[in-house]
Design goal:
- It comes from Illadopsis cleaveri (blackcap illadopsis).
- By secondary structure, the protein is mainly alpha-helical.
- The protein has ten helices and five strands, in the order ββααααβββαααααα.
- The chain has helices spanning about 40-45, 45-60, 65-75, 80-85, 115-135, 145-155, 160-165, 175-190, 195-210, 225-245, and strands at about 10-15, 20, 85-90, 95-100, 105-110.
- The N and C termini lie far apart (about 40 Å).
């Protein structure tokens, strides 16, 4: 699994002579293992209705999400609302996740209460979906692959904007954005992988420079919605130019 402000999958780690199986982060998403409820039953829950409405607004109006949806479509991975998004109840420490086994984004309806939060979670998870589409990401065995996608998601989703960091009472000047990206990537790995903090830090540090500088499909770090709108226009114009070659 992957997360919205944590994230992704896993492995098995030996402790002493015994091998402890990793649950791939699914413990955080208990509804993944339950029989789907009927539409009528789900419609009675306020959380589910609110989640669906906020999701629709994000997909229709948020420039981060719109760019990623377009990029996924052009990469051969068209995203459909009913198929690729699922509003579910989750553990209290996560906001969303990317389930690579089903290519589905899980939105934690019990933890996402504001539209701005929904925007960030959807964008974060769509970046994981984009990485899953364009690259051979080994979510389940290669912690460096997971670390790379987590770095990109934290860097490009708006997780580490100045306003979000101020809201977390975290302040810094030189290099603070990079520090935030690194810290949130490590936090995401630890949320879903049964690895030590040292292992997570080592994986992030080893791939940080390359993955931090991989800005696809935005072409820039979008520090605001205005940046994201410009990136979206540039992306559309880039495709028009390519089409005319």
């Amino acid at each position: 699994m992957g997360e919205g402000e944590p994230d992704s999958p896993p492995a098995a780690e030996k402790k002493g002579a015994e091998e402890e199986e990793d649950d791939f982060g699914y413990r955080l998403f208990p509804d993944r293992n339950k029989k789907p409820q009927s539409f009528l039953v789900r419609s009675l829950f306020t959380f589910h209705n609110k989640c669906q409405l906020m999701l629709r607004l994000t997909l229709e109006t948020n420039p981060y999400a719109r760019l990623l949806l377009e990029a996924l479509k052009q990469s051969g991975c068209t995203v459909f609302n009913d198929r690729h998004f699922s509003c579910e109840n989750c553990d209290g420490c996560v906001s969303g996740g990317f389930d690579s086994a089903t290519s589905q984004i899980v939105l934690c309806q019990n933890n996402i209460r504001q539209q701005s939060h929904m925007n960030r979670v959807v964008t974060h998870e769509l970046i994981h979906a984009f990485d899953h589409c364009r690259a051979h990401v080994d979510w389940f065995k290669n912690v460096k692959h997971l670390a790379c996608s987590e770095i990109r998601a934290a860097n490009l989703s708006g997780d580490c904007t100045l306003m979000n960091e101020i809201a977390r009472f975290k302040f810094g000047l030189k290099g603070h954005h990079q520090t935030c990206v690194r810290d949130r990537a490590i936090r995401s790995i630890l949320a879903v992988r049964k690895v030590s903090k040292e292992t997570a830090e080592k994986a992030v540090d080893e791939v940080f420079d390359a993955c931090f500088n991989d800005l696809e499909p935005f072409g820039r770090i979008p520090h605001s919605k205005a940046d994201a709108r410009r990136a979206y226009r540039d992306f559309q114009n880039r495709d028009r130019y390519t089409a005319n070659l």
